[in-house]
Amino acid sequence: MLTRRHVEVATGVALAALGGITAYGSLENGTGWTDFGPAAGYFPFRIGLILVALGLAIALKYGLTGRRAAASNAAVIADTEIAGPAALHPATNFDERFFEPGSLGRIASVFIPTAVSAALIPWLGLYLSGALFLVFSMMTLGKVGVAKALLIALCTMGAFFVLFEFWFQVPLAKGVVMPLLGIH
Q1: Whose CA is closest to 59, among 13, 96, 2, 17?
Q2: Domain boundary among 88, 113, 133
Q3: Do residues 80 and 118 both lie within one domain?
Q4: Is 96 part of any domain?
Q5: Residue 26, C-beta contacts closer than 8 angstroms, at least 6 positions apart
Q6: To which H or E segment does residue 38 belong?
Q7: Residue 98 lies in a domain
Q8: For the range 99-104, what are the long-range contacts, defined as Cβ-Cβ under 8 Å and sequence gap of 24 or more?
Q9: How do the pLDDT tens digits run along the chain, 184 residues long?
Q10: Which chain regions cross the lipid bilayer (predicted)?
């Protein structure tokens, strides 16, 4: 069973790993001070070290928080009326189930179409892939009809196309299909 404690510790470890990768990568660019000021890796190295320290602190805090301490704090709060900071932060049982039954299915119903849409961007481009994602999401999650979903998706992605391609003049991924349709 996946508990909140597991998720908190995994988050801390992941943050520390990200910080370690950042600090290690910045070593190639120099982490010291040069005649012209800080080297290119000066700030990323320090930010990476801060992320490592914070990630390890999070992992240790939630990994070492005892079950009895949380239970005894909950009993104290339940038995007495506490005012002040303790009342704002009631004890949390970190060993309860993290996901309620059925919640993984709801998460997957959004994550899987998002991942498929992102995987289609090299072939269909951002606009077509986004339109397909919107149509699918509106029809399955929002229970919207096909015609309404197509109209909303095409108007939304058309507005994004005008906004990015003409107004901001930032060309986004067109994929293989859009140039074949004459849209560059």
Answers
A1: 13
A2: 88
A3: no
A4: no
A5: 40, 41, 42, 44, 45, 48
A6: strand 37-38
A7: no
A8: 99/2
A9: 788 899 999 999 999 999 999 999 999 998 988 888 898 999 999 999 999 999 999 999 988 876 544 445 555 555 555 555 544 445 567 778 888 888 888 889 999 999 999 999 999 999 999 999 999 999 999 999 999 999 999 999 999 999 998 999 988 888 888 788 777 6
A10: 7-27, 39-60, 107-129, 149-168
CA distance 54 to 102: 32
Contacts (Cβ under 8 Å, ≥6 apart) of 38:
32
Q: How many CB atoms lie within 10 A of CB 24?
A: 11
Q: Which of 63, 88, 113 is the last residue of a domain?
A: 88
**Backbone phi and psi for residue 144, each to the nearest 5 degrees, phi listed first:** -95, 145
110 shares a domain with 44: no
Quick one: 79 and 34 in the same domain?
Answer: yes
Number of domains observed in the structure of the chain: 2
Is position 99 within any domain?
Answer: no
pTM (whole model) above 0.70 = no
- Its domain, for residue 132, covers 105-180
Amino acid present at 159: A
DSSP 3: B
- What is the C-alpha separation between 94 and 69, in angstroms, rounded? 11
Residue 111, token pair as written in the block = 């994550």
